[in-house]
Structures are given as structure tokens and as C-alpha cells.
Amino acid sequence: MTRQDFFIKWGVYALALLPVWFCEVYLLNRYPLFGVAPMLLPLAAMAVAVLEGAVAGAGFGLGVGILCDAVYFNPDGAMTVGLCLLGVGAGVLAQYVVRQDLVGCLLCSLLALVCIDAVRILSRLLAGTGGLTAMLSLAGREIAWSMVFVFPVYALFLWVFRRVPKKTVL
Amino acid sequence: MKDFFRRNGLLILIAAILLALVTAVVSMLLGGVANPFANVIGVITTPVRNGINAVTGWVEEKYTDAFELEQIKEENQELKRRVAELEAKEREYEEAIQENERLYNLLELTPKNRSFDKEAAMVTARSTSNWESTLTLSKGSGQGIAVDDCVVDEYWNLVGVVAEVGENWCTVRTLIDAGTQMGGQLVRTGGSAILEGELALMGEGKLKLTFLPENTQLISGDLVSTSGLGGVYPSGIVAGHVEEVRTDVSGMTDYAVIVPETDLSSLKQVFVIKDFDIVE
């Protein structure tokens, strides 16, 4: 793959990320269900990691993490490093343990969302803000509602994956 | 995994850690002022947010026109009756104010004064996370808005406090956010307490009033306003009313559940109090 192919490929992935970002930040949070809005950006990182593997997953996770830290309130850099690590993990899982398909993406997304909310709960427990029951309830509703969106997000990135050059050389 | 490390995977991980550290340190040092990258994203997306806000506002208005007309008519009748009542009361108050002025002059007292420097702003986006309750406004440091400025709605009810400022946008931590903590005052009794957000109550759109004054009997519907103690926030801004009194998990202390007077889910325009001068 040439350098130009490389930039076109990741440019197209970045473009595919735009509607996901738009829906999460500007649309779905206006109309919460069961008091929560879904998290879509981590799902996008997981979908690309499952389809492209560990290295691309780490790179795309890093990009999505930076975006999350820029658009989410009160950034602390945790999403940048967290989504990068989760991208590696999802890529490795999809390459060696589960298949690189929708089921693999569902499993990796579930693990990623659990990890993200576990970190949030732990940090709040350590800071002494918020009761465990309330946090578990919120995390449960958030993960359940977000998982519904794995299907459209995976479909979007699968559509992109089938149209871009396959071999990534970094 | 060997393949991962051979193909620059380790470099990506190191870059991620470094960037995360930079984000954390810059956010900590700037203390509420948006970091440069977040500011650029905020500035670029402000027109997009305004556009989306206009479109969704138009759709919601059409929906209301189509399906909630009867309800609005009834509400209008009720409001007309209420206005008539208030106009009658206003005439009585006018006389009381004049009498008050005469007495102030007689006793040579400094009259009470409340002046505010306000900036109108539109709500352009809502919380991007379920773990915080925030609003993004269409004005920022370019219009003189700073961190810790109070935000009120058109009825002078407390909406929240500015927590992060960019060039032409700012993020407001609403009063129900789990991180909110400010002095509160019971309007009926004058007792001071602390207005505090809590994660469990945030989901219900409520907050709590803690450190209740001893021997105070709270009544459902009691108004709670800001106390203004400390001088950071102005006093007398209505935060909400008491819904019920609960005992905390330790069983040692009571707290009141407060329902905000402002409707956070349907806010469109708010006012940021940039400066204030209060003489009590």
C-alpha cells in the first residue's frame, strides 16, 4: 500500500467517524432513554480494532481517544490512553481468540464499555463521590443502551472496511 | 503480539501515554479554561451546534404546535388568571415599596441594591456524558464570561455555574450535577445549608440540601435560594423547592431533596451573571 493509499484509507475512516460523533454529541444526548444516552465513540474504536487488528486498533483508538478528551467535559487524558489500550486489546482478541465479525465486535465492545465504566466507578469511589449502587445502576443502563448501537456502528465501519485498501503499513 | 511490537505498536502506546499526560497536566494547570485542542474543536463546532440547535428547536416547536395545542390553551387560561392575581398583588407591593423608601430616608439607612451584569446566551448542546449534567452555551471568554459565573434562566432561577470556558463557547455544570456544591438558604426560615448534587438524584433531575439547620421544620414546597456566603455567587437566586426530607445511609443526619425550579431539559436561552453588586 502506498503512502497515498494509507492517507486515503484513514481519511475515509475519519470521515466515517463524523456521523457517529455527530449522533452521540449532538443528537442522541437530547433524547435519553431510561435516563441515559449511548456512548458511540468507543464502539467505533472497537469496530475498527476488530476489523483491522491490534496496530490499527491502537492508532485509531488513540485518535478517537483524543477526540473524546476534546469533546467530553472535564478531560483528564484517560480516554486517550484508555481507548488506545482497548484498541490493542480488541485487535488482539479479534486476531487470536474471537472471530473478526459482528459477534467479535459485540464481545469487544461489551468488554470496552465495562472497562470504561469500571474506571469511572473506581475513580469516583476513590474520590468518595457517589454511592456504588447508583453508579452500578447508571453504568448498567449506559452499557445496555450503548450495546444496541454496536449493530449500526459495526455495519458502517464494515462498509468502509470493504472499500479501503487492506494492508496497513505504518 | 510480536507483530504488534514490530509494526510500531509500542510507539503508538507511548504516544498515547504522553498525550494523556499532556491533556491531564494542561487541564489541571488551566483550571477551567479549555485546553487549546478542546478550544479549537469547540470554536469550529459552534456554528454546527447552533445549526443543529435551530433545526431541532424548529422540529420540537412544530411537534408542540401539532400535538400539544389543547394543553397550551389550558395553560394559557391558567396563566391569565395568575397574571390578574399578581397584578392585584403588585399594586399592594408598590405602596409598600414607597412606604419602605420613606422609612429608609427617615432613618438614613443605605437602601438595598442588587445590580447584575448579565450576558444572554443560547443553549447549544447538552451533556456528552451520563456521568455529568452539563450544558454548552453559545458565548465564551470573548464575551467576558469566566469560570464560576452563575447562570440563570429567564425567570431568574438558578441553572448552574460556568465550569469550562472557550473562545466562543462555555460549559455550564448544572445545579443537579454530582460535582455541584454551593451555599443555600431556606427562604421561609432564613436558615443556611449546602446545596449538593448527587449521582443518584441527578438521574431524577434533583439535588439535595445538606447540613440542615437544627430544629428547622421543613415543609414540602419550601423555596431554597443561593445564600451568597463567600461572595463567589450572588445571593437570593432561587434554586428549587423542597420535595421531601430523607435520612442518609448512616441514619445520623437528614437531608432535603430539592426539585430545581428551572426546567433543565427544555432550556433554550439563559443569562450568565458576569458581575454583580449586592448591598443587603
Write the layout of secondary structure elements.
The complex is a heterodimer of chains A (170) and B (280).
Chain A: H1 3-27, H2 41-52, H3 54-71, H4 78-96, H5 102-127, H6 132-147, H7 150-161
Chain B: H1 2-6, H2 9-30, H3 36-67, H4 69-107, E1 113-126, E2 134-137, E3 150-152, E4 158-165, E5 170-174, E6 181-186, E7 192-196, H5 199-202, E8 207-210, E9 223-226, E10 238-247, E11 254-260, E12 269-279
Antiparallel strand pairs in B: 1-2, 1-12, 2-5, 3-4, 3-12, 4-5, 6-7, 6-9, 7-8, 8-11, 9-10, 10-11
Quick tags:
heterodimer; A: 170 residues; 7 helices; B: alpha+beta; 6-stranded antiparallel beta barrel
Provide a concise account of the structure shown:
The complex is a heterodimer of chains A (170) and B (280). Chain A is mostly helical. Chain A is 75% helix and 0% strand.
- The average pLDDT value of chain A, as a whole number, equals 87
Element order of chain B: H for helix, E for strand: HHHHEEEEEEEHEEEEE
Proportion of residues in extended strands of chain B = 25-35%
State the major sheet of chain A.
none
- Amount of beta strand of chain A: under 5%
Total DSSP helices of chain A: 7
User: How far apart are the termini of chain A?
Assistant: 10 Å
Low-confidence stretches of chain B: none
Strand order of the largest sheet of chain B: 1-2-5-4-3-12
Structural class of chain B: alpha+beta
Q: What structural class is derived from the secondary structure elements of chain A?
A: mainly alpha
Write down how many β-strands of chain A occur, each being a DSSP E stretch of 2 or more residues: 0
Radius of gyration of chain B: 23 Å
Task: Please write the string of helix (H) and strand (E) elements of chain A.
Answer: HHHHHHH
Principal-axes shape call of chain A:
globular
Architecture overview:
The complex is a heterodimer of chains A (170) and B (280). Chain A has helices at residues 3-27, 41-52, 54-71, 78-96, 102-127, 132-147, 150-161. In chain A, α2 (41-52) crosses α5 and α4 packs antiparallel against α5 (102-127). Chain A is globular, with a radius of gyration of 16 Å. The longest helix of chain A is centred in the last third of the chain and has 26 residues, at 102-127. Chain A is built from seven helices and no strands. The mean pLDDT of chain A is 87. By secondary structure, chain A is an all-alpha fold. Chain B has 280 residues and is an alpha+beta fold. Helices cover 36% and strands 29% of the residues of chain B. Chain B has five helices and twelve strands. Chain B has helices at 2-6, 9-30, 36-67, 69-107, 199-202, and strands at 113-126, 134-137, 150-152, 158-165, 170-174, 181-186, 192-196, 207-210, 223-226, 238-247, 254-260, 269-279. A six-stranded antiparallel beta barrel of chain B has the order 1-2-5-4-3-12. A six-stranded antiparallel beta barrel of chain B has the order 6-7-8-11-10-9. Chain B is globular, with a radius of gyration of 23 Å. The mean pLDDT of chain B is 84. Classes of the chains: A mainly alpha (170), B alpha+beta (280). Chains A and B meet through α1, α3, α4 and α6 of A and α2 and α3 of B.
